[in-house]
Amino acid sequence: MTAPDHPIATIGYERSPQPEVIGRLQASGVELLIDVRAIASSRRAGFSKTLLGGSLNTAGIDYLHLRDLGTPKPGRQAARAGRIGEMRAIFDEHMTTAAALGALEQAIEAARERRVCLLCFELDPACCHRTAVAERIAARTGQPILHLFP
User: Fold this and answer.
1) How crowded is residue 131: how many other Cβ atoms within 10 Å of its Cβ?
2) Is CATH 3.90.190.10 the right assignment for the domain spanning 8-148?
3) If 0-12 CB within 10 Å is exposed, 13-18 middle and 19+ buried, where does residue 30 land?
4) Which of 8, 67, 92, 96 is most buried (most C-beta within 10 Å)?
């Protein structure tokens, strides 16, 4: 099977209001936003699951929350403390679970068929597990990874 001709995008909303994030997604031709947060709520206005999904729908972008592609609590704590290597190790271990592998298959199938973007909080993709998810998808599909910034 040949690789789809579109990249796997990622985006973090850490410093941006919702309209900027959605605008960047639209400008990049994203058709489906895959929320890879374990907990799809946020203290940032507009980024809780229900509100974000509704706003994306209005903008013509579909929304899918794959909580099993989120970082477990110890990994989130490590990331907040700046221990990115530890977060990555915890996430890699999590990705051996049946639930995470099932969610990854959903993401891979979506990425093959549509222009997808993985969403999480951190602005810097090097500090976020969404890059690890994108790398796993790319390893299976051959697609390049494109990190978007609002």
Assistant:
1) 20
2) yes
3) buried
4) 8
